[in-house]
Design goal:
The protein is α/β, with parallel strands linked by helices. It is 44% helix and 11% strand. A four-stranded parallel beta sheet has the order 3-2-1-4, sandwiched between helices. The two termini are 35 Å apart.
């Protein structure tokens, strides 16, 4: 509860130098503002419109890795997970409480609880995509060790998950599945026409975004 965090910060005199505190306003905005909710719902409403356009055009693809004749491949969308499907603001609040900007143990504990809520509008979009015969893939840089907890979280929220196909592609699950998601996108592009890529980081769309001048 971010209000309790604010109260605790005042009561305990957490040093201003605590870098985690710089995130407190953004956490509060994400958890409580109507504007964030409206923006997220609007984004996924637009995604549904673009999905329909992509399904109507056999030459449509969202992935630069898509090569050759892909017009007859089955359609798919690729979703990033964190802050795209799952809301981890509660984890960020725990970092504020702990007085740190990153802690792998707090992160693992949070993920293993499988209790992250959905970003507003995403479940409805994903279910709409499924109803259109589109396979939904979740491509995340969460580690392979956290895959089962992540899968449970997604299923509990009602996110489509194919029981006969591995649609959750995690970091380290295969040898070349690293932080850069190119190899995973390339693999899917051989088997599916990728209608949409949806994420919150440039790495969710193209490679090389972590290098050089932004």
């Amino acid at each position: 509860n971010t209000q309790n965090i604010q109260d605790d910060q005042c009561n305990q005199n957490i040093p201003v130098s605590n870098l985690a505190l710089s995130k407190l306003n953004s956490i509060l905005w994400m958890q409580t503002s109507a504007e964030f909710r409206m923006t997220a719902i609007q984004s996924y409403a637009l995604a549904s419109v673009m999905l329909d356009k992509g399904l109507e055009d056999a030459n449509w693809t969202a992935a630069v890795e898509q090569m050759g004749d892909y017009s007859n491949l089955p359609p798919a969308v690729i979703m990033d997970v964190d802050e795209t499907v799952l809301d981890n603001s509660a984890y960020q609040a725990r970092l504020v409480r702990a007085g740190t900007s990153w802690d792998i143990n707090i992160w693992n504990e949070w993920v293993n609880e499988s209790k992250a809520p959905a970003i507003p509008g995403v479940v409805e979009f994903l279910q709409y995509a499924q109803s259109k015969g589109v396979t939904v893939f979740y491509m995340t840089n969460r580690s392979y060790e956290l895959e089962q907890a992540t899968r449970k979280n997604l299923i509990d929220l009602g996110c489509p998950m194919d029981g006969n196909l591995d649609t959750l592609l995690t970091n380290g699950e295969q040898e070349d599945w690293v932080t850069d998601k190119t190899s995973r996108r390339s693999l899917l592009a051989e088997q599916y026409r990728i209608i949409l890529l949806i994420g919150d980081d440039p790495n969710d769309f193209v490679s090389g975004t972590k290098e050089g001048n932004p």
